[in-house]
Design goal:
Shape: globular
Structural class: alpha+beta
Order of helices and strands: HHEEE
Number of helices: 2
Strand order of the largest sheet: 1-2-3
Strand content: 15-25%
Largest sheet: 3 strands, antiparallel
Helix content: 10-25%
Number of domains: 1
Number of strands: 3
Radius of gyration: 12 Å
Length: 50
């Protein structure tokens, strides 16, 4: 796999493939918790294309 192929994979699809699911969805935004964080609210946002 070359870099162009890697960049074409949506981040949300990759995270799902390794078992990381969003904790919240707001419109086109998926929110994720940081695994090594003490925060109690989502910290990472991924904007998806519809």
């Amino acid at each position: 796999m070359n870099i162009a192929e890697v960049k074409s994979i949506p981040l949300a699809d990759y995270l799902q493939s390794i078992g990381i699911t969003p904790c919240k969805r707001q419109g086109n935004n998926l929110w994720y918790y940081l695994h090594n964080s003490e925060h109690t609210h989502p910290q990472i946002r991924e904007k998806i294309r519809c």
